[in-house]
Specification:
alpha+beta, 2 helices, four-stranded mixed sheet
Length: 79
């Protein structure tokens, strides 16, 4: 069994304001008013979710890193 060393997450603009972060491998979703806030909230939410869990049973190596992708909306170029 190969253990993952990273937990992948996506951050995108919120529907109304701020930002939303969602992990792809574990059920963690959080939000924040700024990128710094959502990143801090994501680290905390992942830590709380994994607290007391057997990481190997979940497929993760000890102390996995969080890798974040930021989604930008495309805007048409103006001439």
């Amino acid at each position: 069994m190969v253990l993952q060393h990273t937990i992948k997450a996506v951050i995108r603009a919120g529907e109304q304001s701020g930002f939303v972060a969602e992990c792809l491998e574990i059920p963690v979703v959080t939000q924040g008013a700024t990128l710094d806030e959502v990143a801090a909230n994501l680290r905390e939410a992942v830590a709380l979710h994994l607290e007391g869990e057997d990481l190997a049973a979940l497929g993760f190596a000890p102390q996995p890193s969080i890798v974040v992708t930021f989604e930008l909306e495309s805007t048409p170029a103006t001439a």
